[in-house]
Write a structure and sequence with these properties.
This protein has 171 residues and is of the alpha+beta class. The chain has helices at 2-20, 58-61, 79-91, 109-129, 154-160; strands at 64-66, 96-102, 137-143, 162-169. 37% of the residues lie in helices and 15% in strands. The termini are far apart.
């Protein structure tokens, strides 16, 4: 009887150890197959962009929109960059940008403040139309006060007629 009890105890011990062991998990590095045979690629958790892309992606690095003299219409050259920023803002609802409108030195101070605001609002509208939330966008006009170039020539004035897209929050 004592031997029978020992064998039963050892058997129960072996069964309990086997029950507690973990199954080996096989990691499959291959993309998952869909039912129709097509494969899917792994994606970034938030979509196309990550917060680090603001400093590395060539499209997102373009953060200045230049304007023609006395105009607030966005040239077609800048549509792709605005679309990239709008997509980034859609992917990261906590991201915030300030659109800083600037002008060249020609015109009165009041006129230039108004023109800078119209340029900022034009970029704001383009971003909103592409899907960015209005709560993510802020427009500020500096008029002629924050010139990047101080010379009195058309090449210099062109650099000052701009809206800068400044991120205050990246996510």
């Amino acid at each position: 009887m004592n031997t029978f009890f020992r064998v039963a105890l050892c058997g129960a011990l072996v069964l309990s150890i086997a029950a507690c062991s973990k199954k080996a998990v096989k990691h499959d590095d291959q993309p998952a197959n869909n039912d129709n045979g097509a494969t899917t690629q792994p994606t970034k958790p938030h979509g196309k962009y990550s917060p680090g892309d603001l400093n590395t992606d060539s499209c997102l690095l373009q953060r200045v929109v230049y304007f023609d003299y006395d105009k607030a219409e966005i040239a077609s050259d800048f549509r792709a960059a605005i679309a990239c920023h709008a997509e980034y803002l859609r992917e990261f609802p906590g991201a915030r940008v300030t659109l800083e409108g600037n002008t060249d030195e020609r015109g009165t101070r009041e006129y230039n403040l108004g023109l800078g605001e119209r340029r900022g609002n034009a970029v704001n509208s383009a971003l909103s139309s592409a899907g960015a939330s209005s709560s993510q966008l802020n427009v500020v006009s500096y008029g002629e006060e924050r010139a990047t170039c101080k010379e009195h020539a058309e090449s210099c004035w062109h650099k000052n007629r701009r809206v800068e897209i400044v991120y205050s929050s990246k996510q």
